[in-house]
Amino acid sequence: MGAGARRSAAGRFTAHRADGSSGVSPRVKCCVRALKRSCSPVCVAVFIFMSFLGVCLLYLPDRPAVPSFEPDEDSPVTLLIWTHPFGRYRKLPDCAALHQIRGCTLTDDLGAYQKADAVIIHHREVATGAAELPPEPRPSAQKWIWMNYESPTHTPRLWRFEGVFNLTLTYRIDSDIALPYGYLLPRGNTVKGPQNRFTHPLHIPSRSNLRRPRLLAWVVSNWSESHYRVAVYHQLRRYIDVDVFGRAGQPLPEYTGDDVVRLVRRYQFYLSLENSQHTDYITEKLWNAVLAGAVPVVLGPSRKNYERFLPPEAFIHVDDFPTVRGLARYLLKLRHNPAKLRKHLDWRGRYSLHQPPFWSEHYCTACRAVRRNRGRTDVVKYLTPWFYS
Ligand SMILES: *[C@@H]1O[C@H](CO)[C@@H](O)[C@H](O)[C@H]1NC(C)=O
Ligand SMILES: *[C@@H]1O[C@H](CO)[C@@H](O)[C@H](O)[C@H]1NC(C)=O
User: Where in the sequence numbering do the catalytic residues fall?
Assistant: First the structure.
């Protein structure tokens, strides 16, 4: 995985909390302490020096930047979109106008293969045989980018692609090119300009808006008794009213214009239950609730994992309670205790929410990453174990 992409991603998604993920590792400090007890000051000094050297080497760029001039920020990049995801044609975006990323030529013309700096390959089509991989041998220096926004559970035949790709583009924070379904930006850092179309300041509800007309909603399109989330729902509705919408429930009411966010604005709580539980797999189900000002009740990866994306009080995790009954009780209690409810909403004033539009921001972000990785060789050797980890 490209260390550069990882570093910048970590900075971005942990921006709202002091994560302490950088600097000298605690392991080194701990070793120093252990050594002090067992050997002379000279030995300790030598050890500290060697560790320091080690740490420096660790943080060196993977490859020294040959003649040290900055890569031209706007140097042209041609990015070939190998298939439109799920076979649905979308007009390709103008990266400069939409995302302030200049110098990108996006094309879906397969004839541009030989001259493309990189090819974005969406997993589904090449995994199901709807499309073939591009022909080998590939042009030297060309990057193949693996793009996937499904969880591992819904990512078939992954093992076929070991050592095939050069970069990963997924919702995972440790992807080479990381772009989650949504993320928070501390207020004040919000990028000015048209980018704001996809960035929404969040608001603390006024006293009169705190209590909402309806209690708890769930919009679900893929209902499967094998999903853990359906088991949770079956239990939950024994204790509390849940309004179920979507293909598996009532149709969305007329006034919503098919917009889930508009529906959720009438609700105090929203069930943001992912179809499967995997690292960083946190989808629009969470972010739609946040945007609508409802308190999300989440089921997905661990609470710790959610806390990489949101303040701890911003959501209620199904695992916070030993039983679903306990969860139901807590929601009912909040409903009648505005001061407690407010604790789950007051964080909002400090953030804006950014939801990258599919797939324009993904393409444009990839284009920028390709420019930054120019001249490097990257191979994604262990795609399956990484993606399942
Ligand atoms: C719906 O869930 C089933 C069971 O997990 C899964 O096999 C199927 O791929 C899912 N469909 C979609 C559209 O996600
Ligand atoms: C891309 O990956 C292929 C297959 O592993 C590898 O042979 C090639 O050197 C890589 N190219 C770049 C530019 O990283």
Answer: 150
